[in-house]
Amino acid sequence: MNDAKNRTLTLKKVFNAPVKLVWNAWIEPEHIVQWWAPEGMQINVLEHDFRVGGKWKYAMPMPDGNLFVSEGTYREIEPYKKIITSADFKPMTEGVELHVEFQEDGDTTHFTFSVVHATEEYCKQQEKMGFYNGWGSAFDRLDVLVNALNTQS
Q1: Which is nearest to 101 in space by CA: 29, 35, 19?
Q2: Which of 116, 105, 115 lies closest to 138, judged by CA?
Q3: Of 75, 59, 119, 77, which is closest to residue 95 (Cα–Cα)?
Q4: Residue ranges of domains in the chain
Q5: pLDDT of 110-153, one tens digit each?
């Protein structure tokens, strides 16, 4: 196995909301459907068993009639701090691991999202396919949702 840092793509973001709110937006299906897909697309939560060993599966209907399926198994959960899960995003990305970290800083949350790939080559390929734009767009939508939820509370 190549060195993990050379197989990892990472995005960081600061949310102007408490960690509990950002955490819940990440783990609750009624929130996931509002940000997981790109703008203008729909996401359906097919399975969501949020516990270590539990599985998650989301499907996004594509304009051509096919489904883009995201799924994985939770490997580690540390409430309000960390989630590690396997992940497949079929048909584009398979066999990766997501590391999602939440760090409370008063009324803000420092968020770190890393995807660990099997090889450096696969990591570079995924970066070229638009990793930063794709996930960056999703996290911008997550930011809008978190701000709206924060205003309501």
Answers
A1: 19
A2: 115
A3: 119
A4: 4-152
A5: 999 999 999 999 999 999 999 999 899 999 999 999 999 999 87
Q: At CB < 8 A and 24+ separation, what contacts does 134-139 make? A: 134/38, 135/11, 136/11, 137/38, 137/39, 138/35, 138/36, 138/37, 138/38, 139/11, 139/13, 139/35, 139/111, 139/113
pTM check: above 0.90? yes
- CATH tag, 4-152: 3.30.530.20
For residue 129, the number of C-alpha atoms closer than 13 Å in the C-beta half-sphere is 12
Q: Tell me which residue has tokens 């800083």.
A: 105
